[in-house]
Amino acid sequence: MSKFKTIAVFAYPAEAVVVKGKLESEQVEVFLKDEFTVATDPFATNAIGGVKMLVYKEDFIKAMGILEQSNPDLLKYRVEYVKCPNCGKTDAREIRDIETAPTFADKMKAVVLNIFPFSNSYNYQCKSCYTKFDVNE
User: Fold this and answer.
1) Quick check: helix, strand or coil at residue 20?
2) How far apart are CA 30 and CA 59, in angstroms?
3) Is the pTM of this model over 0.70?
4) What are 90-112's pLDDT values in tens digits?
5) Which of 44, 126, 127, 131 is the most buried (most CB within 10 A)?
């Protein structure tokens, strides 16, 4: 079973549905958490933390890229920026992500890391300067 990552949080379901439509048109499966709770009681949005937009962990980098490229106004809803500590760019990929692995060796390493996760932290690699880093550092 795939794990989910939260990519954005919205105050109202209507805002989330628009962004969900954009991501789904790019073949990214999106799930909205607490959508119906906030829709039935809009005053509860602050109490429960708003409408959370979740994607599969494998689609996280792709979804963040779509949010970044599609509309600059959507960036205020982003939850997590994956920024390279070396060059400062937000052009990073998760090492465990098989689809974004550039070489066959990297793809095989991603498969092994998915089967046998060696650490709890997410390991990323910058696509620009190829620096490997952890988000928690």
Assistant:
1) helix
2) 9
3) no
4) 777 767 666 667 788 887 877 77
5) 126
**Quick count: other Cβ atoms within 10 Å of Cβ 82?**
18
Task: Give the per-residue SS3 of 24-43.
Answer: HHCCCCEEEECHHHHHHCHH
What does the pLDDT look like over 67-77, one tens digit per residue? 877 766 666 55
C-beta of residue 39 within 8 angstroms of C-beta of residue 51: no
Using CA atoms, how far apart are residues 85 and 67, in angstroms rounded to an integer? 21
By the 10 Å C-beta count (0-12 exposed, 13-18 middle, 19+ buried), 70 is classed as: middle
Q: Residue 83 corresponds to which tokens in the numbers above?
A: 């920024």
* Nearest CA among 90, 133, 86, 125 for reference residue 106: 125
Query: pLDDT tens digits for 40-83?
Result: 988 888 778 888 899 998 888 888 888 877 766 666 555 555 67
